Hints:
With 85 residues, the protein is of the alpha+beta class.
Amino acid sequence: xxxxxxxxxxxxxxxxxxxxxxxxxxxxxxxxxxxxxxxxxxxxxxxxxxxxxxxxxxxxxxxxxxxxxxxxxxxxxxxxxxxxx
Length: 85
């Protein structure tokens, strides 16, 4: 029987080895494989209510983020809305 800490270690090792490379705002990043665009935004610790995303030169509609898989080599531009006056 596998102990809880051993399982967590194996799961972490597995997550660390199953990554893909993408480009976010011009910077190469390694991210977990299998994320959708909405999950990527959360993984990056970005507030999804204040951003727009361009994926491979096309605007990704927020309503579609859940259905858009992040693929190796994707080029994403994430822009934040800033208020003020």
